[in-house]
Amino acid sequence: MTKANGYISGIYNYCDYWCERCAFTNRCRNFVTDRELELEMAAADATKPEPDDVTNVDFWNHIARKVHETAAFGKAEDWHDSIPDADDFEIDPDWYAREEATSAAVRSYPLVRLAYDYRARTAQWLKAADSDLKEIARSLLDAAGCQFDNNDYEAQAREIGEMLEVVSWYHTLIASKTARAMRGLLEHATPDPGLSPMIAGFRLEDANGSAKLVLMSIERSIGAWLRLREILPGQEDSILGLLALLDRMQRGVHAALPGAKAFFRPGFDGEPPEDD
Ligand code: SF4
């Protein structure tokens, strides 16, 4: 699956989207494409001419770009007719009803409800811990610079920020990826009529991949919560409650998708085999 250009095929399908911490940015086609697009947009913005300044070279560069685009894609006013309205599409009512039923089943799945509960309670915690965290920040500032004190308060402040960032990042990802994993599992167990066995197999594979990402996110969150529990003794009870939820989810994922642990996440679990 690796190509001569070094990209790892599908690496972004089962990653945590934390690109700024990812070791594979230069091997991820999504990241590289997004970055190129950002650079193009920034360059286009930087050379944006004043509307009527016909003596400015940027104005003529802008006209040249427009001419190039029109030659390649036709006149913008002609595009409208070729773009279908949403009303032009007829939604198959049977398909729609099945989709609705699957979404409802996913939402009511116990594991998904746990994950949504964890998301809501973590979001609540992040707001409610505000005064405790400010108190700690004050105490670190007070302690800093005291003579005969060798504690590294700067490292402590950075560590608290890091732990908070970890729980904050993963609490939404755990919820969305648990829902995706359960949807895959349901679609595999009760496939649409006419769905090929190959696609049904892919649903299970995708469910396992999403579940593995959930397991990894849970592990990292547990590590961060355990450290926050030490730092914030006043938050002991609420943190223990969140840890208990994560523990239940972890066991639930292993039980629902035993294949998740062995799922191979391209790149993150090693170099994928070449397919050509
Ligand atoms: S694989 Fe890495 S660089 Fe690519 S989208 Fe995921 S986190 Fe970002």
Which consecutive residue ranges, at least 5 long each, have pLDDT under 50?
A: none
The ordered string of helix (H) and strand (E) elements is: HHHHHHHHH
Distance between the termini: 7 Å
Strand fraction: under 5%
CATH top level of the domain at 110-256 is Mainly Alpha
Count of alpha/pi helices:
9
Q: Which shape, going by the Cα principal axes?
A: extended
Ions, cofactors, ligands: which are bound?
iron/sulfur cluster
Average the pLDDT over all residues and give the rounded result.
87
Q: How many E-type strands? A: 0
Q: The CATH topology of the domain at 110-256, please? A: Four Helix Bundle (Hemerythrin (Met), subunit A)
Radius of gyration: 25 Å
Structural class: mainly alpha
**Assembly category:** single chain
Plain-language structure description:
Helix 4 (93-108) packs across helix 7 (153-189) and helix 5 packs antiparallel against helix 9. The protein has a domain at 110-256: Four Helix Bundle (Hemerythrin (Met), subunit A), CATH 1.20.120. The chain is built from nine helices and no strands. It is mainly α. The radius of gyration is 25 Å and the shape is extended. Iron/sulfur cluster is lined by residues 11-12, 15, 17-19, 22, 24-25, 28, 30-31. Residues 11-12, 15, 17-19, 22, 24-25, 28, 30-31 line the site of iron/sulfur cluster.
List the helices and strands and how they pair.
Layout: H1 29-46, H2 57-73, H3 76-82, H4 93-108, H5 110-128, H6 130-143, H7 153-189, H8 197-231, H9 236-256
Helix pairs in contact: 4-7, 5-7, 5-9, 6-7, 7-8, 8-9
Residues 11-12, 15, 17-19, 22, 24-25, 28, 30-31 line the site of iron/sulfur cluster.
